[in-house]
Design brief:
- This protein is mainly beta.
- The chain has no helices and eight strands.
- It has a domain of 79 residues.
- 0% of the residues lie in helices and 60% in strands.
- A four-stranded antiparallel β-sheet has the order 2-1-5-6, with no helix packed on it. Strands 3-8-7-4 form a four-stranded antiparallel β-sheet, with no helix packed on it.
């Protein structure tokens, strides 16, 4: 059963502007008003604003600008919502069969939650 209201409509994505920005060594698709979890940022507090100028691509209503390596004059303004969040625990289990060797290790990745305040392109 196919409902006409749930079909993909290309016009609903026409008026959105997004950029691909490099934040803490990772590339993210950034839109205004979105919340992201990025690698932990050192020495930031709740409510602090951070400007990212490593914008690699800008898509403004279908008009695409690709940087070489970055787009000139483009930047992203972030607001820190939560400075330190720990991710899910990752368990690493090592075993060698028939040797009596078993070892369990684990760690939790640290993230910072940010809110995209504005995209200037």
């Amino acid at each position: 059963m196919c409902n006409s209201a749930s079909r993909w409509n290309p016009k609903q994505f026409k008026n959105k502007m997004y950029v691909i920005a490099e934040i803490q060594g990772q590339q993210f698709k950034v839109e205004e008003g979105k919340k992201l979890y990025v690698h932990h940022m050192q020495n930031v507090e709740t409510g602090a604003t951070v400007e990212i100028e490593k914008v690699l691509l800008v898509d403004n209503n279908g008009e695409v600008k690709v940087g070489t390596p970055t787009v000139e004059g483009a930047k992203v303004v972030l607001e820190v919502v939560v400075p330190l969040i720990k991710g899910d625990k990752v368990l690493v289990f090592h075993k060698r069969r028939r040797k009596g060797y078993r070892k369990m290790r684990g760690h939790r990745e640290q993230f910072t939650q940010v809110l995209i305040k504005s995209v200037v392109a």
